[in-house]
Amino acid sequence: GDSVTQMEGPVTLSEEAFLTINCTYTATGYPSLFWYVQYPGEGLQLLLKATKADDKGSNKGFEATYRKETTSFHLEKGSVQVSDSAVYFCALSGYSTLTFGKGTMLLVSP
Amino acid sequence: EAQVTQNPRYLITVTGKKLTVTCSQNMNHEYMSWYRQDPGLGLRQIYYSMNVEVTDKGDVPEGYKVSRKEKRNFPLILESPSPNQTSLYFCASSLNGPEGPSTDTQYFGPGTRLTVL
Known about the structure:
The complex is a heterodimer of chains A (110) and B (117). The N and C termini of chain A lie far apart (41 Å). Chain A is 0% helix and 51% strand. With 110 residues, chain A is mostly beta strands. Chain B has 117 residues and is mostly beta strands. Chain B has no helices and eleven strands. In chain B, the strands form two sheets. In chain B, strands 2, 4, 5, 6, 9, 10 and 11 form a seven-stranded mixed β-sheet that branches. In chain B, strand 4 and strand 5 form a beta hairpin. Chain B starts with a strand and ends with a strand. The chains are: A mainly beta (110), B mainly beta (117). The interface between A and B is medium-sized, with 20 and 29 residues.
């Protein structure tokens, strides 16, 4: 079945550091790929998505490129802020279901 | 304001006492879904619904029931809760686009933290 593997956390960075959170997937067909973010005490919200190979999703300074050849969708940001501290989930879609990774906690210190 | 609401937000109950967690959305979305979030396991789908009166099992449906009698509501029912159902539960909704509802943005509720003693 479909699965998503993302790097374990927590990832601890200083403000303005470069961020990479790795995500790889296994799926049949050509799924859409997502990054969702969960701030403390809240539900998940969509950060960005890509629906086909080589698409780049971007939002709030975060980017991720759908790489079919490496089955990856790594999340990057050039300069993180304290307010980016959250749990980040990589996910892929089947027709009617979303499969999530286990989540990566990001902690950014001033 | 477009939103998904869940009630209650927090619940402590005892083994075997039936409970219902409500979920409601005001975006006229066809698709709704329930997830549970557990440490080290991420989110796992319990049930989903493509539209009124259409429901199907997700990855972890055992011990849960759902119904979809109205488009806006999708309650989660635990008929005989057990301690292994202690978890954080999220409801989500989305449009049902031509490439499937899960390719559209999922809108999540704030979560219900359930403890079963």
